[in-house]
Amino acid sequence: MTSHRIVVGVDGSAGAARALAWAADHASRLDAEVVVVHSIDVALAMPPPTVAAPPFVIDDRVRADLRGALDEWCAPLRDAGIPHRALLYEGNPTAAITQIARDEHADLIVVGRRGHGGFAELLLGSVANSLAHHATIPVVIVPAS
């Protein structure tokens, strides 16, 4: 059983893939388990009230699709034989990553510098930036290239 844990935030972006690769490399050196976290912030996924569109609903089909994507994103860990678990969370990504890191007694949080935040990321601040300011354990922000 591993004694170290690394929490990695992923969103399907190239930056998240680089963060996962970085964590995989270091997990194998540290004999660490990787806990992969994907969080969808429903408030950011919903259209603005001025747009005539149905609200975004996370139902069983959406959850199944997200779990399938999360499983696909974890393929490098699986292929390398690195112990890992994947968790799907509904809510603010920064809150999800920090809460899971706390619950898992993680030693380290790893995220990519930029994800799929888009315009909302510019307005609200990135998950990486927020984690750098609010996490209570070390945070590694993997650069874009």
Strand order of the largest sheet: 3-2-1-4-5
How far is the first residue's CA from the last residue's CA?
Answer: 33 Å
CATH architecture: 3-Layer(aba) Sandwich
**Helical residues, percent:** 40-55%
How many structurally independent domains?
1
Give an account of the 3D structure.
The chain is an alpha/beta fold. It has a single domain (4-103, 111-142), classed as 3-Layer(aba) Sandwich (Rossmann fold), CATH 3.40.50. 46% of the residues lie in helices and 21% in strands. The protein contains seven helices and five strands, in the order βαβαααβαβααβ. A five-stranded parallel sheet has the order 3-2-1-4-5, with helices on both faces. The protein is globular and about 50 Å long.
Explain briefly what this protein structure is.
46% of the residues lie in helices and 21% in strands. By secondary structure, it is α/β, with parallel strands linked by helices. It has one domain: Rossmann fold, CATH 3.40.50.
Pick out its properties.
globular; alpha/beta; 5-stranded parallel beta sheet; 145 residues; 5 strands; Rossmann fold
